[in-house]
Amino acid sequence: MIRIESLRKSYGHADGEIVALRSVNMEIAAGEFVALYGASGSGKSTLLNLLCGVDTPSAGRVIIDGKDLAAMDDLEATLLRRNTVGFVFQFFNLLPTLDALENVILPAQLNGVNHREAEARGRALLAQFGLADRWNAMPDTLSGGQQQRVAVCRALMNDPPVILADEPTGNLDSETGLHILSILKELSQKQNKIVVMATHSQEAARFADRFFHMRDGELFETSRSPLSAPGAPSVANPNR
């Protein structure tokens, strides 16, 4: 489970304090696919960065599997990101000098996994996502959808229970984007993983089991998909 308690994030600025998150509270159980839906600058990416320990909160706590991220030292936080949380980026973030398989197995190599064992798992993941014949392709020879699938494989390499996805379909065509969303849905349903996706797309948000509308750093759980009614999501439970 992920538990977020009174989470706040602010940044100093010459013109005064900028508040990115305002006392956010949330609980997410294993197997749930959660969408953070909102416009750019609403706080979605900030919340994801706090969930994986890349950033630290100004106040409040993030607790994953009973462990408080704020109480972790640098090594513990690194191990959390390596083993517990897989991150899928909007711009893929593949290393251009490594081929698809090398990009996928990198997290396992950092964990000291035997190279042959890592390669076997990496090939199996690429095959699972329809890339069995592209394992030795360089990133610049892959389509956007193929690069994103490689990125998903890399996020899954160490079999983390939590997948965070920041605008995972933002740079993809509609058909490829729907395929990636179906993959994320399957991960939550069949592998019991927590999937938290930040998106400004109503079409993407409808794949989730729970919907949270973010606005000006505040989080509101909505009772239905953003596409189930015209206009903005209807606010059901303000979570401030």
Which SSEs are present, and which pair or pack?
Layout: E1 2-11, E2 18-28, E3 33-37, H1 44-51, E4 59-64, E5 67-68, H2 74-83, E6 85-88, H3 100-110, H4 115-128, H5 144-156, E7 162-166, H6 174-191, E8 194-199, H7 202-205, E9 210-215, E10 218-222, E11 235-239
Parallel strand pairs: 3-8, 3-9, 6-7, 7-8
Antiparallel strand pairs: 1-2, 1-4, 4-5, 9-10, 10-11
Q: Mean pLDDT, as a whole number?
A: 88
In helices, the fraction of residues equals 25-40%
Q: What ranges have pLDDT less than 50 throughout 5 or more consecutive residues?
A: 229-240
- Structural class assignment: alpha/beta
Rg on CA atoms, Å: 18 Å
The beta-strand count equals: 11
Largest sheet, spatial ordering of strands: 6-7-8-3-9-10-11
| Helix and strand pattern | EEEHEEHEHHHEHEHEEE
Put simply, the count of helices is 7
Measured by DSSP, the beta-strand proportion falls in 25-35%
Roughly how many Å apart are the termini?
20 Å
Shape: globular
Main pleated sheet: 7 strands, mixed
